């Protein structure tokens, strides 16, 4: 099944159940508490809070998502990408658990044909009702697991709508890791679909056992997120999204330019670098098409980091000379049919990534000169170790990755004062974190506003749907 069919199967299924499609929200959200769109529900946050009446009670979308928290995961796991498409169906004061759970099961096992013996389910720790519904569908008790706040209670990470969730996981088989179900974190049990019963309001706290739940939302709502890349990889019998039709043209180019074939998921650093370059090129193309440009902070810095990481891994693969313009061109080739903004933005995307690649290469050359003279100085004094401050300056001013510095020092028979480097880096992180807290602070301030929502609507009947709305 091609990725286009995976998308359209989802949309047809929910259209037949009364859902109206809305376009993906932009990657740059209209929400001061959010750096980049990271879930289908983002654009409906005001609807869940009762601040806005959605155009229909049942909506569906294919949402562009970027998760910076997963940057380090790309390459380390086979299931995390920095960009992914989230298929979602949403209900506002309409259907709830009794509808959405059987539908999810029917779609996955009936329409996508997933083997029901490979599907596992998680429910929130005290959600007897959800468990009973899964049991009534024939899911055996030993393939239903109960998890706590961290895994099975969803929020946007800040005060706002939240709720218990129930998730569907796919068993990729013993060759991917030990048995034990989704409660065992690892590669074997891959989370596919999150069904959130969006019924509560989250508070500010974020303790070990999760956050404080302030009270009920004006209505009981549904929010689901199904990862298109993960599902497509399973349906196409491959291990990663890079090997699906969505990214294959780009992935092939990386292999051609590296002069070697993808060695498979056990292929160590080479496999990892190939996936990182491909993933980051896709994310960069989508970000630039949505108006983000490389810069020193915020969204622009996320983009710059991704591009630099992609270039770094391209060089590690032995790819010299410009790659990214061609590579993002291939991304547009593979995904432009579903995402017209990529096609429209293609000239800009190619120009921006080419300029950034040239700039970073220059940086690498300048950094190399600085590094070489520092190494020469240290060698003359016979100190044996490069100061952590030099490594940090290279990192901070030139964007020079620490592993490059370590490599070069090692070749010259020197070590690097990594403790000092770590301390300086940590101090810088704390500063950046303080800036990030500003954004969270906004969300915390809004908590009072949300409490107002609670006070207004309390536990009374939700009356947001008095007006009628025609299906479109
Ligand atoms: P995981 O536990 O695997 O990190 P998650 O619990 O963070 O996933 P959700 O926030 O529940 O993910 O998002 C809903 C769905 O989106 C997931 O079930 C998964 O299919 C998909 N998804 C989430 N993060 C990623 C990612 N980094 N790359 C690809 N797909 C993802
Ligand atoms: Mg995650
Ligand atoms: Mg999860
Ligand atoms: Mg999840």
From TrEMBL:
Domain remark text: Consists of three domains; the N-terminal catalytic domain, the editing domain and the C-terminal C-Ala domain. The editing domain removes incorrectly charged amino acids, while the C-Ala domain, along with tRNA(Ala), serves as a bridge to cooperatively bring together the editing and aminoacylation centers thus stimulating deacylation of misacylated tRNAs.
Whole sequence portion shown: 1 to 472 of 886
Species for this entry: Actinomadura harenae
Keywords: Aminoacyl-tRNA synthetase, ATP-binding, Cytoplasm, Ligase, Metal-binding, Nucleotide-binding, Protein biosynthesis, RNA-binding, tRNA-binding, Zinc
Any one of the GO CC terms: cytosol
Domain Alanyl-transfer RNA synthetases family profile residue range list: 1-472
EC class of the enzyme, as a word: ligase
Gene name tied to this protein: alaS
Subcellular location(s) of the protein: Cytoplasm
Gene Ontology MF annotations: alanine-tRNA ligase activity; aminoacyl-tRNA deacylase activity; ATP binding; tRNA binding; zinc ion binding
Name of this protein: Alanine--tRNA ligase
Its job: Catalyzes the attachment of alanine to tRNA(Ala) in a two-step reaction: alanine is first activated by ATP to form Ala-AMP and then transferred to the acceptor end of tRNA(Ala). Also edits incorrectly charged Ser-tRNA(Ala) and Gly-tRNA(Ala) via its editing domain.
EC number from the UniProt entry: 6.1.1.7
Cofactor: Zn(2+)
Family: Belongs to the class-II aminoacyl-tRNA synthetase family.
GO terms (BP aspect): alanyl-tRNA aminoacylation
Main location (coarse class): cytoplasm
Catalytic activity: tRNA(Ala) + L-alanine + ATP = L-alanyl-tRNA(Ala) + AMP + diphosphate
